[in-house]
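User: ok so my PI wants both of these folded by tonight, can you help

Assistant: No problem, let's get them done. Here's the first:
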Amino acid sequence: MTDKILGRFISWTLILIISVTSIFFFILNVTVWLLTVLIDRRLVILHQLTCFWASFYTYIMPTWRIKIEGRKNVKRGACYMIVCNHQSQLDILVNFRLYVHFKFVSKAEIFKVPFIGWNMYLNRYIRLVRGEKSKVDRMMKDCEKALDGGSSVFFFPEGTRSKDGNIKDFKPGSFILAKKKEVPILPIVLNGTSDALPKYTMKTAGVHRIRVRVLPEIPFEKLKDLSVEETTELVRNTMIEGLASLKADMQEG
């Protein structure tokens, strides 16, 4: 009972902190945007500040123990198609802790969230409206524009969160873009977020270990002679193997 009460207290405290600090961070980000938008074409500075904003909540959460691995696999200044498995709404927060420059592809509903969603507009992150072909085409064109401008693009290729933590089938959009724009693919696997922040609730009793591992990039030269379907399967199998290895390492401590 004590753990449950403590968990609820931590949850509501975090929600209150997010509500209050989002106002401060948004004002700060608008100020930075106004000062840098004319000289920072890709909005790198604004994105780095957004990375800190997102990461701040994971830094202060006492029950989330997050470890980032494989940073050396990210080449400075490279333009990637970044793909990651999807277990929880917490996934994007922990990926922001990489402090890698990218344009995040997110469902349109998130852009409507006060302050947080407005900041996504400022960063020129990319809206996805599911089920409408014209809107999906618009999203693909926005991704192409970001890649042409030298910004990596971040996708969850499963589309929705996995219910059991295993990697589901991938949608082809990110791989169509990688082949068309001839960019390498940077796969990321994570584990533990579904326990830390399950759907429709927040578990805060006990400690939740979360691991994010950046796998070696898959260069375009390895993909250029493959079909989109073969590329999708190659990346998915690579990430399945990477996730299995990550889970095994977590079990060993």
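One down. Here's the second:
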Amino acid sequence: MNESNYEPLERRPIASRDTRWARAFTEVLVRVGASPNFISLFGMFAAIVAGVAFAATNDTDGLAQRGLWLLGAALCQVRLLCNLFDGMVAVARKTASRTGELYNEVPDRISDAAVFIGLGYAAGGDPAHGYLAAIMAVFVAYVRAMAKSLGAPNDFCGPMAKPQRMALATGLGAYLGLAPEAWRLPFGDRWGLPLVVLIVVICGGIVTAIRRLLRAANYLRSRAQ
């Protein structure tokens, strides 16, 4: 198939893709000549900086720490916005390609790893759980990609798909950046809210991977019959 005639794979259903503001901003990006691949890479860069900001909270306190939590939360949302607009710009400019699929998928895996490893090293986090959460996020995406390669539809089901993972990271950063100190809810000497969020991501990722595997297996069995 010629690259110029390439049709993108099923895209993640995102309600904001059909909103007036998203379409208007896409038109702005198209007018200024923004590259979909550059947008994808910018989203990855935002996620890496978010992870660094989260990790840096372990070496700061007071207003500086709050600022880092808020910065990480904001950059998680920038990452999601880039995930939204790279595809919209590619479709609007009719530049969707196989190469674009690589730029869409590979930076996402780096982004997930950066955010959750960063949370593992954050104040109240735990590095081992950060690495486990990163591995689980990548594994969930791997299950979807493997099922797709075997002929199943792209399955973006949760409960811990990318939007839910980023919502948790964003909510955590915003809460710890804005909440009074007394509301930070430490659970003993080592159990901080970041560790709780990482455990939720890990457990939710296990459930999500199992659901996607079962749904893919059911689809492939039904097609074979």
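The chain has one domain: 15-224. The radius of gyration is 19 Å. Good luck tonight!
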